[in-house]
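Hi everyone, sorry if this is the wrong subforum. Our group has a chain we'd like a structural model of before ordering constructs, and none of us has done structure prediction before. Sequence below.
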Amino acid sequence: MVHRLGFFVLALSAPVVANDFQTYIVGGEDATANWPWAALVEIDFGAQGRGACSGSLLSPDQVLTAAHCFFDENGQQVDASAITVHVGSAPNGPNSTHAADIYHLHSGYDNTANPIGNDIALIQLSSAIDVSPLPSLVDGAHFDELLTRDAPGRDEALTAIGWGATTTDRNNQAISPTLQQVALDYVPFSTCNQSWNGFLIPVQSSVICAAELNPQDNEIENTCLGDSGGPLILGDDPAPYIVGLTSFGSADSCQGGRPTVFTRVLNMVDFVEENVPLVDVSVNSDPQRYYGSPGGQVTVPATVTNGSLRNTAHNVVIQANTDDASADASLQWSDCGSGGLLAGNDQCTLTSPLTAGADSSGQVEVNHNGATETDATLTLEVGSDEDEYRIKNNQAPITVVFSNRSDLTVSAEQTAGHLDSDGQGIATVAVRVTNLSTVNAANDATVALTLPAGTTARGDDTVQCDTLCWVGPMASGASADFTLTLTSGTPETGTLTLTVTDQDGEDFPQDNNQHDTAVSYSGGNARDSDGGGSGGGGGSLGGWWLLALAGLALRAQPPRRNNRSR
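Answer:
Right subforum, don't worry. Here is the predicted structure as tokens:
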């Protein structure tokens, strides 16, 4: 049985037979005021009662939710007049209430023949809402980064948000009076599809899966009735990337027997652009760190791109600002007219519309008054007449350093770990020291080590180490690699802290001088502690989980919709 995560009945083909679709967040926590763009979608089904789904305000008058929410128990599609949307993350009463003018379903969604693919809808509200910040549809780079994470990196990498029921008791389920959120682990498609007996193969390109694989105290943590259409976001950023929309789960009263299936929004961008004139205008500069001498000038190249698939951006405005009064920014952009020289101006408008896929390049001149060294943040910002579906890409913060000192940084990764014949732990760690400054050399770079208790360290033939590693002079832009060998008489997982500095004058700025890495002696590579999963629940997809999925596959439990709460 497939359960929708709204409130509903749906028929599916074998091997997963469907009915009773539902979704809610169980085992989560209150999210009041955290997500001002969260939406509760109420649907009047007449004699059948009222249903509810969750959603997200994507632009001032567009709400993103699930397509299956708009069909009654007889498979009949409701009229837009039956829809009421409440926007805001406060308890139900204080949220602003809006009627729907019209709504659009994905053309590939078929509530009868193909109800689990392309499960996405857009609701156009009768009036615009001034909410900031707004979420963004995930872009390819951030989505790919999620897909390639190792097991620790997938642990609680995602957050599901919704107004659904908060109990697995089917006789006591109702819309939550308070918006809920729950941290979930990303589940790779191959594992998710295995647990669904291959049922997801036909819709692979339009789905993504998540679950809590190792909940604390065995508490159920999942989406459920009323959460359908609610967002699955990266991390817990208040202006996040949305990677999925709650669609369906296994028919186990939302107890998490199988990973919940979400609509993959990255592949739904064309649907969004086809139905509303939203665009994806972004600005970037590569690299994101530039250097000059005090009293000097730094030229920062930048590019504005319309990443839209079909929509044109009109009156594209570019702005450049710094957070330091000693550093003044001015735009030089040929597409802005005036011969491309706009000295003293920090804003310009492109003279021509930016069509889908087009870009415009220019530069920003940053001048320093020379009073004192500084690391100013130059913020480039872009906008247009059209609303955006990736507003998160509209800003690019760039560090501009005016200094006569080097800028050192250090990184490390464990490459091996084992126990020797005496039971001592032996671990090797690859270390890289880099002078990021493109104008200043380091005279005497060193790396101080803070070792786990009972641990000693030695370097290699190139860099000598004990608790201090002597790297020596480093030219501007240069890197130095060496290997640390750690020996522990108490071989337990610990943290190695590395701190780099220039002994002759230190370096500037010191925002990137320290790095922590986890060290283990179990024979596997450890993951950097500043790049891994969060603490608490979650965990890797070990053999126990695969065995559990195999057992579920044999039972062939049908799926669950999460869209309605009676």
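For your construct planning: The chain has five helices and 34 strands. The CA atoms of residues 138 and 144 lie 10 Å apart.
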